[in-house]
Amino acid sequence: MKYPNFKDLILFEDNDFIVINKPPFLASLDERGGSGETNVLRLAKQYSDDAQVCHRLDKETSGALIIAKNPEGYRHASMQFERRKVDKTYHAVVDGHVIFDDLTVDLPILNDGNKNVTIDRAEGKRAETIFNSLKYYKHYTLVECKPITGRMHQIRIHLATQRAAIVGDDMYKGKPVFLSSIKRGYKLTKGEEEQPIMKRFALHARHLVFKGLDDKDIVIDAPYPKDYATLIKLLDKFDA
CB–CB of 181/239 below 8 Å? Predict the structure, then answer.
C-alpha cells in the first residue's frame, strides 16, 4: 500500500489537536503482535513528536480521527470519550431497503479479544447506537449511525442484528456491491473476473464534534474518500 502524506490528511489543526480524514486500510495504532507496518500513530509522530491517537477506527473504516499533540490534549479528549461527550456520526451503506427512524439499538457486546465480537446479554458491555435512514436506493440504503458508546465493531454488529449488514462486511454477512447487480445490461469481457465497486465495508466516520482545551466546540466534517464517493455516485446513477 502506498502511504499517504500525513499533511494531506489533516482536516483541522490547532496547538493541541489534529483531526485527520483517515484513509481506508490504514490501522489507527500498532496491531497486537506488532507487524511493524505503518499506521496513523507512526505517521502522526513523524509530524508531531508527542502525538497520541485519542480513539480508533477499524482498519477498513475511513473518516474523522482525533490526534492529540500533547499529554494535556490527550487527557482532555480521553475524558470526553469516557463521559460520552464526543458527538460521532458515521455513514454506512447497507444491504436492502431498510427504514430506520431514530431506531435505538441497545444490545450488549462481548469482545473476547482476537477481534471476535458477539452480542451477549449476560456477559457483554452496554452498547447503544441510534440509526436513521438517509437515502433509499432500490437495493441499498444509506444510513446515519450515531454510536453513544464506543465498543469494538459496534455499528457493524448492531446493523447486522437488524438484518441490515454493511455492504462488503463479510464478517457480518454483508455482501459486496458489484456494478453488474445494479447496471442493466452490464457485460464483462470474456475471462474477466468482476471486482466489487468497493474493496472494503462501506463505513465512514463523517462528522465529529468535541471540545478543545478552551472548551469551544471543534466541529469536523470528513468528506467521503474516493472509493466511498464512487459507490454513492454509482448507486445514485444506476440504483436510484
Answer: no
Rounded CA gap, 236 and 218, in Å?
31
Tell me: the pLDDT tens digits for 182-222? 999 998 888 889 999 999 999 999 999 999 999 999 999 99
pLDDT digits (tens, 9 = 90+) for 64-103: 999 999 999 999 999 999 999 999 999 999 999 999 999 9
Alpha carbon distances (Å) from 66 to 29, 39, 89, 132: 12, 14, 14, 24
Residue 240: Cβ within 10 Å count: 10
Q: Are 98 and 143 in contact (CB under 8 A)?
A: yes
CB contact burial 34-59 (16+ within 10 A = b; e otherwise): eeeeebbbbbbeebeeebbbbbbbbe
β-strands 62-68, 203-211 pairing: parallel
Chain centroid, CA 152 distance in Å:
11
Q: Any residues with CB less than 8 A from the CB of 233 and at least 6 apart, and which?
A: none
Question: Residue for cell digits 444506476?
Answer: 238
3-class SS of residue 118? strand
Rg (CA), the chain: 18
Phi, psi of 199 (to 5 degrees): -95, 30
Entry pTM: 0.95
List the catalytic residues. Answer: 58
**212 exposure class (CB count in 10 Å sphere: 0-12, 13-18, 19+):** middle
